[in-house]
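Example 465.
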Amino acid sequence: MDHENEMDTPASGQVPPKDALDQAGGAQPPQLPPQGTQTVSGQREVMSRRQFLTYALGGTGALMATMVASPLVVSAFDPLHRASGGAFSKTNWKPSDFNEKLPTHVNYLQHIDDGWNSQDVSNDVYVIVYQKKLMIMSHVCTHLGCHVNGSTENGKSVAPEYGNGKEWFFCPCHGSQYNIYGVQTPASPAPRPLDLYYYHVNADGYVEVGNNFQRSDATWGNNPNPTLA
Amino acid sequence: MNTENFVYRQVRKVLRKVYDWIDERISVTPLWRDVAQHEVPAHVNPTKKLSAFMYCFGGLTFLTIVTQFLSGIFLAMFYTPDIKNAWYSVNYITNDVLLGNVVRGMHFWGASLVIIIMILHMLRVFFTGAYKKPRELNWVLGVLIFIVILALGFTGYLLPWDQKAYWATSVGSQIAGAVPWVGTYIQTLLVGGHTVGALTLTRFYAIHVFFLPAALMVLLGVHFVMIRLQGIAGPL
Ligand code: FES
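Predicted structure in complex with FE2/S2 (inorganic) cluster:
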């Protein structure tokens, strides 16, 4: 044991000099646990009574807290597992009310199931026939959500009035323009075409309107809805 | 074993460092010592004498009150205090919300549990004579807390707006109306109108989730501070 080592040893004596440690380790019978599980004082490391109680109580407390908290947190996350709407709303339109030349502006009562509340809310859409399917276009501008205007006069659809007679829809907010299929012009702030609605035709021949879905510039013509008879 | 020990030590080290960093700046150690680090007197320690568990009822009351606060906060995310929608929103919580029936069940059963444990706590204080000088004021506070808890139970009972809720409140408010001289005024104020209806529901809701919980927190705070000032009452 050299003097330098003695100087480093704390006064409390809890950490014996390195030499002493080596000696203690060397003196142990081989079947005892290896060095790594020993404390510096050469004793086998066991959990103190206090530590054990701390863990036991802490563990029990954590378990109880989790039991109380988890159903609460799960309930708050309920909206994430809820699919949006899905119900179809009846209308009084027949597919023959619409044509391939110009969109027609029509109203219907949209059935909305919202939590414990169900209501029928008036909604208006623009409908045009494209490739033997209805394109039921939302009136919501894809830029920031204003109500777009169609080219209509006294409630009747007329030839495109915007963009030098090429564009049919115009958004009054920031000037987005869309053609008869709801596809925006490159200069418009709107990032994508107007949304489409799902629909089906019921047994009586009336159109029923479902949820809406987004399209991109590339998929503006894709329409997953049924072909008209 | 070795690696387990190693990981355990490292985690401890990091936690220690985080704690020290915070402690160095805002010295939390004296704070939590003041709140939590006290010797448990032998006569209230169930490991020394099993019957001492009755000294836990106060703490258990607080624990159930805390769970009531928590489950109530989450129920408020779905509940609507309106006579047209209240029942439907409760129905939605019970039948549609994920584990909503569990959350509502916690609040429902917890409400009764708080009252039961609180009465046990009160009986313990009474029969060990812990309310005697110098702790009379804390007994009075405790009785105020008791009243607030009962009021929470009464106002909460109306919120589902079903038949049971409606008639319980009708009867309850008529009992208030039986007070001599001022009864009808009390009844009108309580109900918020001349019949149990839309105004009663919003009024009870506000009382249930704002007024009473706020009062309860203040009263409980003072209750605990007084225990800290006066210490736990001595053994019999
Ligand atoms: S909202 Fe329609 S252009 Fe901005």
